[in-house]
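OP here, attaching both records as promised.
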Amino acid sequence: MDYVNAFWVGGLICALAQILMEKTKMMPGRIMVLLVCLGATISAIGWYEPFQEFAGAGASVPLLGYGNMLMKGVKEAVDKDGFIGLFKGGFTNGAVGCSAALVFAYLASLFFRSKMKK
């Protein structure tokens, strides 16, 4: 049942993002920022943990999960370091994912040539 819940919750999140792209004039980058901020807000309220318990990877893999991870890092850093943790916590928790994206994008650029769309 864990796989089923992860599949339909993750699919629903992606479908809602696709509907936003199709039915509004919002650019994809703004929708991505909206999802990250929504995940951070839900995490701050305290609703993300039960949601992730239910949905598993369906909740942790999409951009909502990235917002949750950033907020967790901020909460931990504020508890440990005080005010400076507001600025430090998100970078600490998000560093691995951002670093991996940069490294893999660089490796892909070594093997593939980018082309302009016509």
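Record two, same layout:
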Amino acid sequence: MYKHILVPTDGSPLATKAIEAAITFAAEVGAKVTGYYAIEDMNMHHVGAHLTKDLLEEFERRGMEAAEQHVAAPAKAAKAAGVPYSWLISKVTQPYEGIVEAAKKSACDIIFMASHGHRGITGFIVGSVTQKVLSHSSIPVLVFR
């Protein structure tokens, strides 16, 4: 069945529940888990905003600290469940691209991710990272809600 599960997180409570569920699933099927966090490139979002280099560096430093906390936190639960756990962080233009690339780079055979379920006009305006992963991934995506 599945041997390597990628679990992206954005640090939200729903993503945290998805990681817990992925660890339980991995323990049942004998798989390992890789946690993933995409740091969006601040330079791309603030082109022309005249942010100083120091401010951009501070945003990046704080973003990396938060990312490390989010992906390192499940290690204890994974260890308790007997599930091998590693994590990966990358700086990306679009989170969905980072997720798809991380799955390829880590040789994962499934992506297990949360969906916040934005629908209607909110879903149209905000967009859905999960929907984009579903449409761009070449491996199965299990959506946790």
